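Pasting two entries for a bug report.
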Amino acid sequence: MTPSLSLPAVPPPVSPDSCPLCGDRRAAHFHRDARRDYYRCPRCTLVHVPAAQRLAPAAERAVYDQHENSPEDPGYRRFLGRLFVPLKARLAPGAEGLDFGAGPGPTLSLMFAEAGHPMAIYDPFYAPYPEALERRYDFITATEVVEHLFAPGEELARLASRLSPGGWLGLMTKRVTSKEAFAGWHYILDPTHVCFFGEATFHWLATRLGMTVEFPAADVVLLQKPHREA
């Protein structure tokens, strides 16, 4: 399902919205396809879709309802293993976590529970448990989630605040590499993908949150909170 939009003949040179990650208002036009415009922030380098060109909640939910992810699917488990393996290697025995954006078929939480790391789950559509966002955790995961966020700056700061000292935030999302690659990128074809992060974006985010950052795979990011809070 795609949004019903009538794009202007010439896109504005600067985004009509402030950057949803850092709030900068100078994001320049980066790319246009048949459905949407994309703007890139000069401060944090996030590429985003303007608010007026995003799906409405009901249409967004309809796309997610088509997902058929299941913990019984070994291929899906292998996919999640790209985050599971490097993050698990960094956790203390018995560390407890939260899977943010768990989706209609929570699987990563089961994988960690099987390895001795119990996890709570939260998803605004499928597991809307606000109490899960009030606790502290040793680690938080968000797999194929950040590209869907309308307010990633606010949401990621909230997740970081829920981490205990020394805690880990593990993210999976494909990264922007160049303007040329972006134009032919399959990742922008999903109408629910509205924010696109590059490696420089995650370095900016780590500095903003006071965390360190690692890139164990092309689509995996691990951010760690200091062991002592300032």
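Entry 2 (this is the one that rendered wrong in the viewer):
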Amino acid sequence: MELLGAVLLAASLLGTTAWGAQAPWPDEPSHTCFFQTLSSPDSEFCRGDLEVVYPQLGDVGCSYIPQCHQYRWRISREWGSPRVRYPWADKSKKYVLVLVDPDAPSRANPKNRFWRHWLLADIRGTDLRTGDLKGRVLTDYVRPTPPPRSGYHRYQLRLYEQPAGQHIALGPEEMLSLGAWAMESFVERFRLGSPVASTQFLTKHHED
């Protein structure tokens, strides 16, 4: 979150208020970039110091993607996969990383949950510590692209410890579609257990 802090400092030097009681909701148009962290219950999903870093934004974990500087457009149309770092990863173990949207097509009607945006297995703990992931790609990274007028979507990253000797793979039916993925069944099938760390960020369609 160092980059976000630098932006907020710059805002304060310009005499604007980026946080506090007078801070606008993230939808409000403004020449100043307002970054807002998630409130409960969404913030409770974030645990374990898992970092997800996009260009110019830094660590977006547990925050809204602001509309200013075309950030919502850029995360959905321009930027590739983020750097994901977990400083507490065990160097001797491997991990599985999942990125899903549980709000497809909308949070009010999530009939296609979970939409699979990224799936990596065999991630070495040493690579997680640096954020330079070289795991086995099961699902290529798909940018967050919330449909118009569907409100905010949660983009959730879950990091699991991969059982020793376990070969993680998608089944033939799972590979046919990214939407309506039975993520819980996948986790149970490979005995992944609970995530060792998780985080999420929220964004909406760039024109909303």
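Dev reply: Rendering is fixed now. As a check, the viewer should reflect this: DSSP finds five helices and nine strands in the chain.
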